[in-house]
Amino acid sequence: MAKKQFKKRIGCIGAGYVGGPTMAVIAAQCPDYLVTVVDINEKKISAWKTDDLPIFEPGLLDIVKKARGKNLVFSSDVDATIRDSDILFVSVNTPTKTFGEGAGKAADLQYWEATARNIIKASDSDKIIVEKSTLPVRTADAMDRILNANKKGIHFEVLSNPEFLAEGTAIKDLLHPERVLIGSRETRRGLEARQEIVDIYTNWVDRSRIITSNVWSAELSKLVANAFLAQRISSINSISALCEKTEADISDVSYAIGTDRRIGPEFLDSSVGFGGSCFKKDILNLVYICEHYGLSEVAQYWESVVRMNEYQIRRFVNAMVQAMFSTVARKKIVLLGFAFKADTGDTRESPAIYVARKLMDEQANLVISDPQALENARLDLREIAAGVEFEKDPYKAAKGAHALAVMTEWQEYKNLDFKKIFMGMEKPAFIFDGRNILDHKLLFEIGFNVYPVGKPAMSHF
Ligand code: NAD
Ligand code: UGA
Known about the structure:
alpha/beta, six-stranded parallel sheet, 43% helix, binds nicotinamide-adenine-dinucleotide, binds uridine-5'-diphosphate-glucuronic acid
């Protein structure tokens, strides 16, 4: 691939859930741009070069295949990619800090800063640096100071272009985004750089969907979008607890309130709790920033969204134990699903991790089933994995079980032959539907004792 045939050279540092799919779509939609994705994890890069991609995401392989070998390259040569790129997207991980000041809340920016230092070291020309990772508001300021303190006379213009894709629907979200947000400084150089990023997206996104702002608004909007989405789930989950006390049905309540255009129907599905690598981390990050600025009431308000989620997960597993006569010791319990949501193999912060650990503490015989996430489940539970059975086939997993608990809303669980499953289970047989995806009335008629979320339990005794 000769460099000069391309209009611009884009590099992306970080080939994870965001870097990989985002760059694959940019490459597929912008044949004039050369897109190189790099990562320090060589195993991951090798996998991106095969048909066995390092992440499961519907439609991803088709998009990768469309561009790979033409204008999409995966490489472990971070320095060369930095040097050769005009525009560098940075999509490294920004987890919650586990040590020192801000531990448990603040974003751990070590990967971010390591990247900045690498950029200075490897660059020999001006570049546009685009924050794709989710970062605390005003990170671009720190980035700008670190980068532009270089002694080579190189100018780095730092922009924010946060990513809003959701896992499981990443390709659809990237191909048809509701909006693209691009924040830049409002200086001549900043505005020129902003236009360069706008020019990439207008290859397939209507200009009316591209929002531009200053850098700080873009950085903060990403944190706020996740906080609002998670807040809706915690709000409906808080009401699910009240439904269980009052014989109201959470699905009816969600539907009734969601038909109000001002509220809307999305993100009102009550569940065992939200998971995923970002909601909790981004809210805690927001909380930390508010505390930093002395806004303790604001911090507490948002922190309650995370606390409510923890309560919901705890409540779910405690209700399981209670329903099964207050003991699950040596009872075989099957978790149907371990991914934090359907259509992904990602298990980061999955409620199933907490549920599994708690059931093991209670000395249950635990079986975990999932169509895509068993490898990650083994890693998440590595300290107790020896005592856990991992079985992809839900029918085999359910044989001789006392209880099933739906943790992930996989489509295939809705279509299982529960009559057949019931026949092979110990009696009384229990089913706990942490996603409210099953036909509860039918399950009850088959003979199960059924425990949904936010709806009356249906028990035969
Ligand atoms: P990820 O862990 O899947 O990927 C990050 C990658 O960066 C890893 O492969 C890691 O090896 C690599 N990396 C770290 N330091 C590096 C360095 N110095 N040089 C080269 N590579 C390096 O994380 P992710 O889920 O893709 O998330 C990345 C960022 O995007 C986070 O800030 C996250 O909050 C944000 N985000 C994630 C999602 C999502 O759905 N996962 C959606 C929107 C935004
Ligand atoms: C979320 C946001 O939806 C994305 O816009 C954002 O880019 C991304 O976080 C991020 O920054 O990482 P994601 O976590 O991939 O995306 O998936 P969601 O569909 O938002 O689901 C998050 C969790 O909430 C899942 O555990 C899901 O099962 C749960 N959920 C979702 C509910 O319990 N109820 C709902 O009504 C919706």
